[in-house]
Amino acid sequence: MENYYQAILQLRDASQEIEGFVDSHINGSLRKGIFVSRKKKVRNGVDYYISSNKFTINLGRLLEKRFGGCLKVSEKLFSRDRQSSKDLYRVNVLYRPLPVRIGDVISFKGSLVAVRGIGKKISGMNLFTRKQELIDFRRARFDIAGKVTVIVSKVYPEIEVINPETYQGILLVGAPRGSLKIGQKVKVVVSDNRAFFVK
Questions:
Q1: Which residue range(s) make up the domain with 104?
Q2: pLDDT digits over 101-127, tens only?
């Protein structure tokens, strides 16, 4: 049983959080007879040789639902059961997360979108229009916008912060009124000489 496996879960470019999630999920299923015969470090990731096709496919779908990203499932005939005459397949489940996380701000089609959820699409709030956006990451091109820490310089009649490049006061968009004080540090994304508040 030491080298037995039905499926390979291939994690690529995954964070420690994702790898820890997989390890935890597998450890929680040991009592159900699920086991990993080998865990192999490879370039850009790790391969898990797992005893169950069904479990591995479900784990891949769970990763896609929880962290977003791209999932590819393929199967390959590797043997035939002599007693039942059934074909036996091994499954490869390739999972690669997106380079974006909940809480990031992405630059998309000239707008900034604060990422609130990642699933089959990226969901978030357009910081310019304050409306919800759904982005199909398989077709869309986007960049992660850099957040900077700035200091609040004015709270009335409008909230302003110090631009970290010009050291001039610029309007802060999206901060709840009455929530900030002069001298307070906040995280923002700067665009078009405006600062956009991000939590």
A1: 99-145
A2: 888 999 988 889 999 988 778 899 999
